[in-house]
């Protein structure tokens, strides 16, 4: 989905796909350098197939973003014709993932390779969809990102727990300074300043853990009617949990002193591996703007209808 020139603004991606009714194939093309697919996991060295998000052009009319399955390597690992692939280069973390860049030069795929749960194209080139509103259709295409946000929210909490467990155990063994001359040195966790650094973060991580488990159950038990609520809640929790995680890991690194720099204590590694969570599956600032817009819209709608708040965590406003 991501391109060099477009990340959060998926609707503006520049890859173009047209339908050739004479052969029953879709033709995928990268029209400019900013349209190259970027950060695609596994693309640089390994994957054989990818899902390409692209503008679909039917009879000269742009029907918006759609998704297609395309083969980029054969069974021997050789890159397919009319496809160019390059590595994205070394990163501050997640270097076990071979993120790649992909260019398509009029690559042909069968008509059946369109992922058509939301819209389809008939053999003779007619565009078919039950969702006539382009905005609703676009939202339906992107609804599958919700699972990624649920996963990020949960994994960010796990990472925070690891950092806090490390630093609190260390704080119960490391001593510094004494209260009286020649007296025993004091455990650093017995200092109020150290408690004020760590214990509020520990308490908040308990709350975040309960929230992440609640979000996971919402997703497992989801119904079509819950799509909007899950989108809003998962967006909010993804941003909040990933921001919270990075704050915790930095505090843990500092609270461990020099020991926090050691790779074996994992805190630096976790910072490098999890930092990108604030960007992928939706930039956190953009996600929180979506959340604010949804909450404000719900508030206005309920006040207008004079009905009680139900959902999106606004029920407390009924009183």
UniProtKB/TrEMBL annotation:
Residues 144-295 form the Acyl-CoA oxidase C-alpha1 domain. Its EC number is 1.3.3.6. It comes from the Eukaryota. One of its GO terms (molecular function) is acyl-CoA oxidase activity. It is an enzyme of class 1 (oxidoreductase). Keywords: FAD, Fatty acid metabolism, Flavoprotein, Lipid metabolism, Oxidoreductase, Peroxisome. Its main location: other. One of its GO terms (cellular component) is peroxisome. Residues 1-107 form the Acyl-CoA oxidase/dehydrogenase middle domain. GO terms for biological process: fatty acid metabolic process. It is found in: Peroxisome. InterPro entries: ACOX_C_alpha1, Acyl-CoA_Oxase/DH_mid-dom, Acyl-CoA_Oxase/DH_mid-dom_sf, Acyl-CoA_oxidase, AcylCo_DH-like_C, AcylCoA_DH/oxidase_NM_dom_sf. Its cofactor is FAD. Belongs to the acyl-CoA oxidase family. This is acyl-CoA oxidase. It comes from Solanum stoloniferum.
């Amino acid at each position: 989905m991501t391109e060099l020139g477009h990340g959060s603004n998926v609707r503006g991606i520049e890859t173009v796909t047209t339908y050739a009714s004479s052969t029953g194939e879709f033709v995928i093309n990268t029209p400019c350098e900013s349209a190259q697919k970027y950060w695609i996991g596994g693309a640089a060295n390994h994957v054989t197939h990818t899902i390409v998000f692209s503008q679909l052009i039917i009879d000269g009319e742009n029907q918006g973003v759609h998704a297609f399955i395309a083969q980029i390597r054969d069974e021997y690992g050789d890159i397919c014709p009319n496809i160019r692939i390059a590595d994205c280069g070394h990163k501050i973390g997640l270097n076990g993932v071979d993120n790649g860049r992909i260019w398509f030069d009029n690559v042909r795929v069968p008509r059946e390779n369109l992922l058509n749960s939301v819209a389809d194209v008939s053999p003779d080139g007619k565009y078919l969809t039950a969702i006539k509103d382009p905005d609703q259709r676009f939202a339906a295409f992107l609804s599958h990102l919700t699972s990624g946000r649920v996963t990020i929210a949960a994994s960010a909490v796990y990472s925070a727990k690891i950092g806090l467990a490390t630093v609190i155990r260390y704080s119960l063994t490391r001593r510094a300074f004494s209260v009286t001359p020649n007296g025993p040195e004091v455990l650093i966790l017995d200092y109020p300043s150290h408690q004020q650094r760590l214990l509020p973060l520990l308490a908040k991580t308990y709350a975040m853990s309960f929230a992440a488990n609640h979000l996971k159950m919402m997703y497992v038990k989801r119904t079509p009617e819950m799509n909007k609520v899950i989108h809003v809640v998962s967006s909010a929790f993804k941003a909040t949990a990933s921001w919270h995680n990075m704050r915790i890991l930095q505090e843990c690194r500092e609270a461990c002193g020099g020991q926090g720099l050691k790779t074996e204590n994992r805190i630096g590694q976790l910072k490098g591996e999890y930092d990108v969570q604030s960007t992928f599956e939706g930039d956190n600032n953009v996600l929180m703007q979506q959340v604010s817009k949804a909450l404000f819209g719900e508030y206005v709608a309920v006040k207008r209808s004079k009905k009680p708040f139900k959902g999106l965590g606004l029920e407390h406003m009924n009183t």
